[in-house]
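Incident log, structure service

09:12 report received: a user says their structure output differs between two submissions of the same chain.
09:20 pulled the input from the user's history:
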Amino acid sequence: MRTLALPLLAVTAVLAGCGGGTEAPETVTVTAPPPSPTSTAPPVTDVTLPEVAGQNGAIVFEQLTELGLTNFQLASQDADDKVVLSPANWTAVSIDPEPGTVVSSDSVVVVTMTKES
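09:34 re-ran on a clean worker, output below:
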């Protein structure tokens, strides 16, 4: 009985300290610092759109990327091939807005392409 009394006494002592008191719990407020800006977007600049008609789609893609355009889209004019998946397999037909137009680098620019010769 003596070996049971010691663990029972220890459990009782621990439970006695686990509440039952009338004191309100202490409130702790933690304030985190504001998140630091992590913008990796390139600055918006003015870009003059090049003539692209007749050029390989991969070359046009690279050229527009190097100019800093961030929102250009490649569209198909072909009825059978509706989505431009690999620009290297396509030829540019036109660019909208038209070549020579000055746009901001985040403007929507559409390059229409074809697979047909």
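09:41 both user submissions now match this output. Likely a transient worker issue. Closing.
09:42 reviewer note: The mean pLDDT is 84. The CA atoms of residues 19 and 25 lie 10 Å apart.
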